[in-house]
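Explain this one:

_____
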Amino acid sequence: MRVLLTGGAGFIGASLLQTLKPLASKIVVLDKFSDYYSAGYKRARFSTLSEGIDIELIESDLSTTSLSELFAKQKFDLVIHLAAQPGLRINYPVSIKYVSDNIAGFANVLQASLESQVNKFIYASSSSVYENSISSIYSETDMLQIPSNIYAKTKWINEVLANEFIGKSNTSILGLRMFSVFGPWGRPDMAPFRLITSYLTDYVFEVNNNGSSRRDFSYIGNVTQMISNLLKLERMPQGVINLGTGNDRSILEVIEVIERVSGLRVKIKSNLEAINEISATKSDPSKLNKTIGKITYVSFEDSIAETIFWAKSKGILENLEGWINSV
């Protein structure tokens, strides 16, 4: 396959590179190395995780770049669109990036993919689209309301746009609703990264809502395995699919696992201000299991241990706090 991977310097994109290596004859990565968090961290991540892979890296802004010439030249078989402005709590005026990156950028890549008739177009949606779901376990069949959060809203719009073109071209289209992905080289705005940093350094983790918020934390190694199995299917499903474990844990439970695995105490303080966020996210993995078959995943405890091992390594440990402060 000839593959275009957007957001290839991001956490999930860069972690997917080794998975793509044996499947692709050509890998082109598009990334603008945004400053939402340290661009230096992104470059270090990309350099490390792309080692030994022949990749053409193009630095560009997808919301403004014409892609017609690139697609005509490369004749991609597969497009994996992961580039986006992440984060749920960015305020105006920075929040305008959600519109340019997550809607304009998405539409640009989708249009180029359809016009060049790529075989498969896979894009990153988010579990945040379930914001107003009345279900306690999120299923792809849930009737969704428009989310109130602007990030979640842009991901919901991505799904609406993608669904409009399913069946109207030869391109198979699949959105990945990912649930709280963590692990080595993870995003420094995410709770597991910050919690592990708080026991390794002087950083103090601020616990919101008494640590009661529950998330379906999904280890990056498990997520790349899910995607790998989807890519190997002769017929890829269309629409959307959850990439989650089906197990949720509170922040306090995550802290307990980190302390048990590490033998050290996590430094925390309570945020007395109530944070308006989804109280719990939990994936229904039924469709995923039916599609790719049940596979053995790395356990949550082993996932935390592997992330701690990475965080303690040379070149990482001394930079953890700086990367957190770059957000």
About this structure: The chain has eleven helices and 13 strands.
